[in-house]
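Key result, reporting period 2: structure in, sequence out.
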């Protein structure tokens, strides 16, 4: 889906300042949020990693830009809990006020009618899957990505839409996140790494020596008409 989370390739955000923290979770509340999310995964509130990622994508846009990495996770946790019916937004708000907090911008944006997930009778670890069908594309073949996004979760970034690239690796079958995130099954597809020139994505002003490699699912691609 189109949203503030899809920042790849966008102008105006300045240089990336790489600051290596002295520890992996520099603040105690980071560890608390990390534990909350892992608990929600184990308890089935977050149904799978793609469901969780989609809950992060859907938080308030300003919160996404300002709350930091684990702040986004916290907003996602609230979204997941409300959508699962474990707690209401009103109950959360009352608890915040009871603890002396101030209600301001709320990051969580739960859906009024959440996706319906059916429990799987057989859980297979990992995301790789064996496929009976042969891949549609070969290494070295030119492909074009889809022009438009989708309403829900997707792993096709906006900057890579409607772009021509070359298949450089075939990874076999993998769970399809676009279905997995919404309870529509694993729907495994062939996965490829596709290489694009910077010129293709950002025009002639881009560095001619830069190549961008993106892992893309088969349904995102179509063959180039020669």
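The corresponding designed sequence is given below.
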């Amino acid at each position: 889906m189109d949203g503030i989370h899809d920042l790849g390739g966008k102008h105006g955000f300045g240089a990336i300042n790489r600051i290596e923290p002295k520890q992996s979770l520099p603040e105690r509340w980071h560890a608390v949020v990390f534990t909350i999310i892992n608990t929600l995964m184990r308890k089935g509130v977050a149904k799978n990693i793609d469901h969780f990622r989609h809950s992060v994508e859907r938080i308030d846009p300003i919160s996404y830009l300002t709350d930091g990495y684990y702040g986004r996770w916290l907003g996602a946790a609230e979204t997941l809990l409300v959508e699962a019916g474990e707690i209401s937004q009103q109950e959360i708000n009352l608890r915040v006020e009871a603890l002396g907090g101030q209600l301001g911008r709320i990051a969580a944006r739960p859906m009024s009618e959440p996706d319906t997930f059916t429990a799987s009778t057989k859980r297979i670890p990992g995301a790789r899957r064996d496929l009976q069908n042969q891949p549609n594309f070969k290494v070295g073949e030119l492909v074009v990505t889809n022009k438009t996004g989708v309403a829900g979760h997707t792993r096709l970034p906006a900057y890579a839409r409607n772009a021509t690239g070359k298949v450089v690796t075939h990874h076999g079958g993998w769970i399809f996140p676009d279905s997995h995130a919404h309870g529509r099954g694993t729907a495994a597809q062939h996965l490829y790494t596709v290489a694009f020139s910077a010129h293709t994505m950002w025009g002639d002003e881009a560095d001619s020596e830069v190549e961008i490699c993106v892992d893309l699912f088969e349904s995102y691609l179509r063959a180039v008409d020669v």
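The longest strand covers residues 164-174. Residues 129-223 form a domain with the SH3 type barrels. fold (CATH 2.30.30.50). This case is discussed further under Risks and Mitigation.
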